[in-house]
């Protein structure tokens, strides 16, 4: 199992705009290729101008195949153009899950954005 943790850092004050763009143009095309995200996280403290997606793949080959198909999709290319204009920076890391289980817990107030489905967990 391979987890792709992707954290997007945004220009201050653009988080809502980015989430609206993702909801309108990015979510459907991304989930069509990658499946549902393992987690979609917004911060309450720290860098509040960021959000994190966690995607789950069988292995590196599965990730490469699905991401290549998504990158070739004209809908995804259009979404990337729109988000680039709004400003964003990506940092990602890959984590392989082997012997140990991963558990992600989130607590806090009611989710305010319809694209967020937390708490999420995997055991």
Explain what the structure shows.
The chain has a 4-stranded antiparallel sheet with strand order 2-3-1-4. The protein is about 35% helix and about 25% strand. With about 120 residues, the chain is of the alpha+beta class. The protein starts with a strand and ends in a 27-residue tail after the last strand. Strand 2 and strand 3 form a beta hairpin. Residues about 105-110 and about 115-123 have low confidence and may be disordered.
Number of strand segments: 4
Low-confidence stretches: 104-108, 117-123
Radius of gyration: 14 Å
Principal-axis shape: globular
* C-alpha end-to-end distance: 12 Å
**What string, H for helix and E for strand, traces the elements in order?**
EHEEHHE
**What is the mean predicted local confidence, pLDDT?**
79
Content of β-strand:
15-25%
Main beta sheet strand tally, sense and closure: 4 strands, antiparallel
Helix amount, in percent?
25-40%
Number of helices: 3
The chain-level structural class is alpha+beta
Instruction: Give the spatial strand order of the biggest sheet.
Output: 2-3-1-4
């Amino acid at each position: 199992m391979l987890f792709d943790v992707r954290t997007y850092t945004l220009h201050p004050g653009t988080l809502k705009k980015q989430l609206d763009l993702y909801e309108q143009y990015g979510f459907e095309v991304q989930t069509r290729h990658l499946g549902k995200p393992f987690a979609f996280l917004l911060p309450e403290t720290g860098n509040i101008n960021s959000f994190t997606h966690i995607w789950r793949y069988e292995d590196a080959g599965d990730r490469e195949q699905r991401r290549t198909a998504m990158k070739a999709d004209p809908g995804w290319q259009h979404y990337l153009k729109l988000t680039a204009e709004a400003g964003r920076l990506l940092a990602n890391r890959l984590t392989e899950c082997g012997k140990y289980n991963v558990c992600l817990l989130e607590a806090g107030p009611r989710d305010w954005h319809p694209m967020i489905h937390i708490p999420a967990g995997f055991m």
